[in-house]
Predict the structure.
Amino acid sequence: MEKVQQISIFAENKPGRLDKVTGVLAENGINILATAIVSTNGFGVIKFMVDKCDLALEKLRAAGFTVSLSEVLAIEMKDKPGGLHEVVHILSGRGVNIENASVYVAESRKRAYLLVEVKEIEKARQKLKNSGLTFLGGESKAK
Amino acid sequence: MSKVRYWQKDIETIGRRALEELQLKRLRSSFGRLYRHVPSFREKCRAAGVSPAAINSLRDIAHIPFTTSDDLRAGYPAGLLAVDRNRAIRLHTSSGTTGKPKAIFFSKRDIAQAAELVARCLTMTGTGSGDVLQNMMTYGLFTGALMMHYGAEKVGALVIPAGPGNTERQIALMQDFGTTAVHILPSYALYLATFMQQHGMDPKKDLSLKRAYMGAEPYSEKTRLKIEKLFGIDVYNCYGLTEMNGPGVAFECLEKNGLHLWEDNFIVEIVDPVTGQQLPEGAEGELVLTSLCREAMPVMRYRTRDITRILAGKCPCGRTHRRISRILGRSDDMIIVRGVNIFPQQIEQVLMGIRGVAQNYQIVLESLDELTIRVEIARDMFDGNIEHLLSLKSEIVEKIRSAVLVKPIVELLEPGTLPVTEGKAKRVIDKRTI
């Protein structure tokens, strides 16, 4: 299975922080595939899935941002009522807790992925073997 | 442990009794000269009912009125000279945060004596002929750099009078001439290490540094250990003030456990900062110093505003001059929040002991009952998980609360947000108007 990676950026809650981050990505021709912002009183973490992950990491660091890279599970969802529920139901049934999630729409009205952050990714993978879920980046339906 | 070396072994290891006899003799002489030559001081003594004839033991020093920085300022520009001004060969000023500076005069003998004391300190910590001392303190009206300079020359070290700032040139000098010792501000040492790392250098491997002398700015034991680790060196605390010659009043020996205060040159007292009452040995309070060998401008019972305590017991190095603890704070710097006295150093001590915290922080006071601490996180602690940030924040809140008894508001900041200076770091921002 190909690794799906997500970039996290530490940001103080103050005007213009997100603007600066997206500016760096835009200048370097990096496409944002999915976004999530987790924030609390005072600071937050901005998360991106991008097309050129290594380049984004390098450019953001050079611009002085505090950045880290982590792996996520990218699970295909069907575009029909109950599509998200189907995925989430399987995860909960197998004891995989969602720490954080965002959605990546690969092709409008055709394919979308739920990007899931979990505590221990290898354990979660084991639990999801033969679950019928399809993951982004190959080894499709693990049966 | 390196071998113990002395500059003036006889006086450094003098017996306590002989030392006290010497102190009394010198006190009577200094007090007498000041009393005879400085009318304002004489009037103050008369009002307090004390004259040189009343000094029969060291204990009688408690009858002599204190000298405050305001007293020294009031004498500006004449200074409280005990000799004819023609005998003074040097003027230094000590800046106040407000108003006039203090004029401090030195005779030829005073300069030589100050250099002697620094020579004792440097020898005690292993600096001598063959060493290269790069002096990164400010040369000028401030005594810090000059007195260290003279003392270092006296022990035969090669002195580089670099002065502060211009970090790239500092590093080039250190590398080109194999600098083994530096006299530097702690905040600048931290800055220097960060600067080197950012430019792909390792302060531990790419310098020949063995030791650093630090003072002039309060810093915690944790910061000392951090700097020692970053550079792979020994850091020695030094203490001095222009009113008492400059650096070399008290200095750590190889034990790095308290600063030997040269009691043949100064009488040390610790007093309650509010009442001025002498405190028993070991108690924390304001350091009060009396100069014993200053010729041009002796100063009696000077209120330094520095908070410390006397460390009881003998030092393994054999020196008999008592030690004071590192400066715990300035009685001026003390901040009061919800009626609790807090020294910024207490907060620094806590922060430097927490993993995930970078070197820079700021204490912000917006009201009388709120203590806000702004802390930069360490770049390598960030793993994208907000839970980890939240637990770091609550760890800081809890540890500070248990150290200073006030629950702070903690703000986590991106690394590099707070201003980094090449001079003294401004740690406390007081926005209160009362």
